[in-house]
Each structure stands twice: as structure tokens, then as C-alpha cells.
Amino acid sequence: MTAHAVARIFGKLMSRLGHHRYYVQGGDWGSYITSIMGMLLPEHVKGLHINTVAGASTPWKQVIIGSYFPSLFLPAKDHHMVWPAITKLFDLLMETGYFHLQATKPDTIGHSLTDSPIGLAAYILEKFSSLTNITWRDLEDGGLNEGWQIDDLLNNIMVYWMNGNMASAMRFYKENVPLFKDNINKCQIKVPSGVADFPGEISFLRKPETWVRYKYINLLQYNSMPRGGHFAALEEPQLLAEDFRLFVRRVKTS
């Protein structure tokens, strides 16, 4: 069950529901899935809007050389999104332990968490801390009491607990990681695209507009949002919805 398979399933679902032209929106894995839909189903996808740029690779040569000469590659307003590179590398090392675990041994931890509600809660809530605001990882309560309603967090945990699907959610990483080097992932996306860049998004997942255009060549909209992080749809639903509506209007008038 890869992201490519999910993209085909979603496309078939929309067709069976009678929707042959539609817009797609996604964050995190959803941005990767919807981007694949844009590649595989361009005749059906009227527009693609994402709030995590999962489909665009990082030009590492620019990162390295730009550490000394940043203005060669990006406008000054975007420098903070890439440099200092050592800070982004530190965040990458600190915040991707779960990714490596889920991409290599998902069933080991997956079945353990399916058997422990406290373990499941701890595992999930840690992500709601650092991926909402990276500085919260140093707080005693992880910033959860400051930035979230407890019922919203518990609702999210209960979706995994009541359905017993944490192991399968983790396995999605193992299914997909070997495919990251597929030719399809190197393809450019030609459908009208829009990006909502939230400042609290984990630093190594953010991409400046210049880099986004390498992949999404028909980028009609790139907006820097005033607040919000990785879980934008839950954190700032109004901001995300407004940006999506603006994107749809832009597609219709382009």
C-alpha cells in the first residue's frame, strides 16, 4: 500500500462518485499522495494545493555553497529557510528517529503501541510538540498545554487506538521509502499548484518558492502563512481553508 497505490485508489473513488474534475489538497503524506495524483491523473486534477512540500527534493549543492554565498541562489527573504545549514541538519537528526524506525522496523514498535494506550499517547503526542513548534521540545510539558486543546489531541490518539491501526500507519513508511528513487518521483508536476508555507513547519520540510518551482512548474500561488505548523489543518483550519479557496479562485481566473 504505497502512496502511488493510494493515489490510484483516490482517483478511482472520485470517478465512481461521479467527480471527473476536482481539486486536491494535502499535508505531510497527503501532499505526497496528492502530488502523485497530479502526475498520474492530470486530466482529472484541476488544481493541487499542499501545505508540506514533500515532492520537491533539496538541491544540496546549493545548500553547501550557499552557506558561504547565499545570495547566489535565493533572495534574502528566504535565506532563513535554508541557512544556517547546521541548524537544519541538527533538526533533521533530532526529529527523524521515528522515521527511520518506521521505515525499517515498523511492526516491532507498531504492535507494542497497539498493546499500550499510554505508550501510544506518548509516541503521538511527542510529534504534536516538536512539529507544532520546534522550541517546545525543550519545555517540560512539550508546549502541549499552551498550543492545543486536550480533547483535540485525545481524539487524534483514539482514532489509532480504537481502530488498532498504528502498526499499519507505521508500515506506510516502510512501503514507501524504497520507492523514493522511482522515476515517477523525478517527474515535474504540470497541473496548477499552490503552496501554503507555515512558519512552524519542521525546518527541513520547508522549501523556498524558488526550489518548489523546480518540481511544481505551474506554481500559481506560494503564500507565507502568519502562524501554524506541521498540523496546519488541525492547528489553523481557517487559515488553510482561506488559502485553499484563494488558490481555487486563482486557478479559475488563470
What can you tell me about this protein's structure?
By secondary structure, this protein is α/β, with parallel strands linked by helices. It folds into two domains: 3-57 and 184-253, Alpha/Beta hydrolase fold, catalytic domain (Rossmann fold), CATH 3.40.50.1820; 92-178, no CATH class. It is built from 13 helices and four strands. It has a four-stranded parallel sheet, with helices on both faces. Helix 7 crosses helix 9. The chain is globular, with a radius of gyration of 19 Å. The two termini are 36 Å apart. The mean pLDDT is 92.
Approximate shape: globular
By CATH, the architecture of the largest domain is named 3-Layer(aba) Sandwich
Mean model confidence by pLDDT: 92
- Round the Cα radius of gyration to an integer and report it: 19 Å
Number of helices, where a helix is a run of at least 4 consecutive DSSP H or I residues: 13
Order of helices and strands: HEHEHHHHHHHHEHEHH
- Major beta sheet, strand line-up: 1-2-3-4
CATH topology of the largest domain: Rossmann fold
What proportion strand? Answer: 5-15%
Strand count, sense and closure of the main sheet?
Answer: 4 strands, parallel
